[in-house]
């Protein structure tokens, strides 16, 4: 067994007035020696607001922290001032520069339902992260464009193909929507840019809400014109959620038909009756790894399935034949 040196870094203390939750983290990959990171989380101070921080690990393991904001109450930034009830933040770092994008769900002061928003930050080396205020209006764009008419939540965000891919759960669990931005969000998408993912064989609606959406793209070649949606939803005739994967062909996204763009939903989990929840996914080399939580035999377990990457034309609906692994019990001595 290898020896791991642990170093605990407290990015933000809660204290008497703050409660922190829903943390996300990303690392710049522009060069092997670059150790710049970005972190995002929700601060439950008088509601739900977003905090961000940039930090870097030096070559000797020391940590240098550069905050996006100053100490409260001086850190009234655009995200904090403009949106209420922020939730589900996700952060990614671009491959070619020290730039971070953050997406989250939240509502404008004048609205009663949540939309999906996007902001951009830069963190050159160990200097302070700053918001790119030229993005959209005052440094953010509204991706979902629902105008307060539907509830949007659970955003996913990846750099793939020639830009950014964002997806989210719409209509309080009734649909999944997705947008492909080749200009990296410089122009706010219109309703015509947003596509609804076809989900044949999967129940939607208030009693069968979709949940736990994530996006996966190639970790080795960001220019790959393919992304995967992974989410939880109940198949027809079943009350419990299962984990599903849907491929998205970015080459055909703008002008192609649904059949050209989206693969058929692939059922990943095979629950005996308990719901599968909290899906996570990563695409590395020629395989996609998907993990999720599921309750079996009176206990919660973490399950994992690895699938080969399939082109949209090769996919068929139904249960995959690849072996399911119970990570809670099957991993021993680093042999799996």
List the helices and strands and how they pair.
Elements: E1 20-27, E2 36-43, E3 49-57, E4 63-67, H1 78-82, E5 83-93, E6 99-108, E7 115-122, E8 130-131, E9 140-142, E10 153-160, E11 163-170, E12 175-181, E13 195-196, E14 211-216, E15 226-233, E16 242-249, H2 258-261, E17 266-267, E18 276-284, E19 287-296, E20 299-308, E21 318-319, E22 324-326, H3 327-330
Parallel strand pairs: 17-21
Antiparallel strand pairs: 1-2, 2-3, 3-4, 5-6, 6-7, 7-8, 7-9, 10-11, 11-12, 12-13, 14-15, 15-16, 16-17, 18-19, 19-20, 20-22
* Overall helicity: under 10%
Number of strands: 22
Arithmetic mean of pLDDT: 74
Q: Note the overall shape.
A: globular
- Residue stretches low in confidence (pLDDT < 50, at least 5 long) are 1-6, 57-82, 311-321, 330-336
Salient structural properties:
mainly beta; disordered C terminus; 22 strands; 336 residues; 4% helix
Describe the structure concisely for a colleague.
By secondary structure, this protein is mainly beta.
Structure commentary:
It is a single chain. The chain is mainly beta. Helices cover 4% and strands 44% of the residues. It is built from 3 helices and 22 strands. It has helices at 78-82, 258-261, 327-330, and strands spanning 20-27, 36-43, 49-57, 63-67, 83-93, 99-108, 115-122, 130-131, 140-142, 153-160, 163-170, 175-181, 195-196, 211-216, 226-233, 242-249, 266-267, 276-284, 287-296, 299-308, 318-319, 324-326. The strands form 5 sheets. Strands 5, 6, 7, 8 and 9 form a 5-stranded antiparallel beta sheet that branches. A 5-stranded mixed beta sheet has the order 14-15-16-17-21, with no helix packed on it. Strands 1-2-3-4 form a 4-stranded antiparallel beta sheet, with no helix packed on it. A hairpin with a 5-residue loop joins strand 3 and strand 4 (63-67). The protein is globular and about 45 Å long.
């Amino acid at each position: 067994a290898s020896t791991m040196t642990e170093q605990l870094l407290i990015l933000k203390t809660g204290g008497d007035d703050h409660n922190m939750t829903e943390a996300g983290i990303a690392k710049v990959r522009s060069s092997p020696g670059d150790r710049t990171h970005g972190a995002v989380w929700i601060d439950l101070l008088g509601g739900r607001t977003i905090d961000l921080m940039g930090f870097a690990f030096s070559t000797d393991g020391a940590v240098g922290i550069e905050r996006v904001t100053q100490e409260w109450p001086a850190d009234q930034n655009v995200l904090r001032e403009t949106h209420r009830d922020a939730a589900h933040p996700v952060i990614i770092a671009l491959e070619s520069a020290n730039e971070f994008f953050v997406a989250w769900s939240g509502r404008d002061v004048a609205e009663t339902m949540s939309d999906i928003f996007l902001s951009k930050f830069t963190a050159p080396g160990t200097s302070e992260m700053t918001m790119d205020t030229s993005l959209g209006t005052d440094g953010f764009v509204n991706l979902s464009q629902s105008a307060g008419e539907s509830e949007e939540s659970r955003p996913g965000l990846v750099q793939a193909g020639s830009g950014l891919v964002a997806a989210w759960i719409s209509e309080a669990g009734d649909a999944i929507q997705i947008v492909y931005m080749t200009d990296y969000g410089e122009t706010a998408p219109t309703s015509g840019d947003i596509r609804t993912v076809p989900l044949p064989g999967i129940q939607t609606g208030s009693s069968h809400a979709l949940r736990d959406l994530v996006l996966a793209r190639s970790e080795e070649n960001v220019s790959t014109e393919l992304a995967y949606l992974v989410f939880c939803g109940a198949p027809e005739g079943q009350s419990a959620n299962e984990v599903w994967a849907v491929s998205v062909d970015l080459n055909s996204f703008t002008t192609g038909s649904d059949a050209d763009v989206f693969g058929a939903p692939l059922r990943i989990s095979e629950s005996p009756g308990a719901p599968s929840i909290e899906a996570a996914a990563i695409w590395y080399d020629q395989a996609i790894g998907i993990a999720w939580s599921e309750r079996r035999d009176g206990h919660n377990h973490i399950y994992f399935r690895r699938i080969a990457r399939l082109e949209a034309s090769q996919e068929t609906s139904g249960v995959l034949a690849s072996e399911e692994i119970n990570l809670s019990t099957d991993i021993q001595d680093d042999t799996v």
